[in-house]
Design brief:
With about 140 residues, this protein is mainly beta. It has one helix spanning about 1-15, and strands at about 25, 30, 35-45, 45-55, 60-65, 70, 75, 85-90, 95-100, 110-115, 120, 125, 130-135.
Length: about 140
């Protein structure tokens, strides 16, 4: 029984390990001059560490629900922290964000982008930020 269990369990564990791709950062940071900068620091499994820097002289509002991962025509909204979380970043300050995206199904060689359709606001105006491109390895 032990031998049978090992023969089944080991390939299953290897398969599960391959299900969560590493997304290499092709363009690690994006910036809207005078307003905001977003940088991907690291990825561990489904968790991404982003640094948001407020380059303006007004408070920057960060809406966690506004971060989206797009790959292969599918849109994946961030799954953690809880929906509706909002943070304020003071002028000239940084904020580290921990975001979780479901990356299952992204295959090696595919590209993905973290996009910000409604994530950053200054004075109730959306800050236009270009996507950050990632490549699955």
């Amino acid at each position: 029984m032990k031998r049978y269990g090992r023969r089944v369990l080991l390939p299953l564990l290897v398969w599960f390990a391959g299900c969560v791709p590493t997304l290499a950062v092709a363009g690690a940071r994006t910036e809207t001059p005078g307003l905001a900068r977003v940088e991907v620091r690291q990825q561990q499994g489904e968790w991404f560490t982003l640094i948001v820097r407020n380059l303006s002289t007004s408070p920057l509002t960060v809406e966690y629900d506004g971060f989206v991962l797009v790959s292969g025509g599918s849109t994946r909204r961030q799954e953690a922290p809880p929906p509706g979380k909002v943070e304020t970043v003071g002028p000239g300050s940084d904020k580290e964000l921990q975001l979780r995206f479901n990356v299952a199904g992204i295959r090696r060689g595919q590209t993905a982008q973290i996009v910000f359709p409604r994530a950053l606001h200054i004075n109730n105006q959306t800050v236009p930020v270009t996507p950050i491109e990632l490549r699955a390895e």
